[in-house]
Each structure stands twice: as structure tokens, then as C-alpha cells.
Amino acid sequence: MKHHATDVHDLAAAYALNALDTEEREEFAAHLPGCETCRQDTADFEATAARLAAAAAQAPPAAMKQWTMATIDGVRQLPPRVPATSPVSFRGVLRRKAVPLALAASLAAAASFAGLAAWQNQENRELEQQARQSEQRLDAVTTVLAAPDARTVHGRAGNGALTTVVASDRQNRAVFTATGLPAPAQGKTYQLWLDHGGTMSPAGFISQDGTVLLDGNTADARAVGLTLEPAGGSPQPTTNPLLLMSIRA
User: Fold this and answer.
1) pLDDT at 214
2) pLDDT value at position 200?
3) SS3 content of the chain, % helix, strand, coil (to 5)
4) Which residues is 165 bridged to in the sheet?
5) Which long-range contacts (CB under 8 A, 24 or more apart) does 19-26 make?
6) What distance in Å separates the CA atoms of residue 241 and residue 234, rounded to the nearest whole number?
7) What is the dotted CATH code of the domain comprising 149-249?
8) Counting Cβ atoms within 10 Å, is residue 168 exposed (0-12), middle (13-18) or buried (19+)?
């Protein structure tokens, strides 16, 4: 990707993602020591990329090991306890009990492990789906951050959170990042909006510090808004905006 020399301040996202060619990377690296804004932007984008990459990795749920161990213990069959002084009775017990116990153990084990296998398959499918969705989000965010026409705007919400929007008209997408966003009150959520000529359209949600891909048509949006709404969101803003940040020059 090529940028005009005067656009060096817009290369922070692509630099953090290692999406610059050698000449551009060297130019931006030489520029960094003298530009506090670009150093901060680069650090923010690197942290965002790390969080998104971590989100794509799905660890097995903690309950899986506990459930497996509990199931194994539950199907273990111990030999019946009989007095050591009764060898004849012991053999008789074995003859009478061996087949039923073996059959019961086999059926219990088969049922338990069949249930475990089904549960694990369901968990695996859900984890795979979550991983695919995370990877798709990561790819979409990376595409916006590395777009040749990406532009970056910074702002501060009314609750003190630092915000960044990276928008690409070619991609018709924008990425919103928040740092220092206080947790919403119970029953509330932060909702994002796109301002289309004074008409606010829902653009997704953000619940805590992080990065989200905005929903909707961003190419002709004038600004990005943030409000505190009832859980589940609203079709139109119901509170005064915490943020209304222009994304146009």
C-alpha cells in the first residue's frame, strides 16, 4: 500500500498491523520518535490487535474436565465386599453377580460416554462457530485498519472514555475503539449510532473497553454517536449523547 508523504500520521494502524511495505515502514519508524500522537495511536492499535487475536482463541470450558472426571467416577464398578472367611459364599456371589454387574457397568459406561461424546461434540461445534465468528471479526477490523484510505479520528466521551474511530469509505466500514469506558448500570447498555444527515441509525453495541465493527452504511455517515440505552438497545436514542464525534474532515 502506498501513501503520500503528507499522510504519514495516518499510517499508525497499518504500521501496528505490519501492513506497510519496507520503505513506508522505515519512514514511519523514523517519524515515531518525534510524534507523541502517532506513538500513542500505534500503541492503541497494537493493543487492539492483540485483544482481537486473543478473542479468536477459544479455550475448552472449565466444566468439561469436571464433568468428565465426575462421569468416570460415577460408572466405576467395584467388586462386592464379602467376609474374607467365606470363600464359598464369595465364589457364589461372583457367579450370581458377575454377569449382571458387568452388563450394568457396560450399559452405564456406554450411556455415560455416549452422553459425554454428544456433549463434547456440541461444545466443539459451538467453540468452532465462536472461533470462526471471532476470526471473521478480526479479518474485517484488520481490513479497515489497513485500508489505503483509512482515516483516524479521536474523541472523548462525556463519561471520560477515550474513543477512536477508523473509517474507510472504500470498505464502507468503520471501527470504534473505547478505552476507560465505565461499566454501564444494571439493565443498561452502550449503543453506537451513525449520523446520516441528522438521522441517527443504530450501529451496534459496546459493553466495555475494546473494539467493535460498526453496523450499517458508514461511507456517507457524518458522525458516530454513543448513548446509554436500556438493555437490548433502542431504535432511536433515548438519552443525551455521551459522544457525537465527526468522522469527516
Assistant:
1) 93
2) 94
3) 50, 20, 30
4) 153, 176
5) 19/145, 19/146
6) 13
7) 2.60.40
8) buried
Taking the model in full, what pTM does it have? 0.56
Which amino acid would we find at residue 91? R
H helices, E strands: number in the chain? 5, 8
- Which pLDDT score, from 0 to 100, does residue 122 have? 67
Sheet with 162-168: list strands edge to edge. Answer: 151-156, 162-168, 173-179, 210-213
First-to-final CA distance of the chain: 22
| Segments of the chain with pLDDT less than 50 | 1-6, 55-57, 85-99, 101-102, 107
Quick check: 196 and 223 in contact, CB under 8 A? no
pLDDT of residue 49: 64
* Helix (H) or strand (E) segment spanning residue 155: strand 151-156
Packing angle, helices 36-56 and 87-145, rounded to 10 = 150
Q: How far is CA 102 from CA 14, 35, 106, 230, in A?
A: 65, 75, 6, 58
DSSP state of 77: -
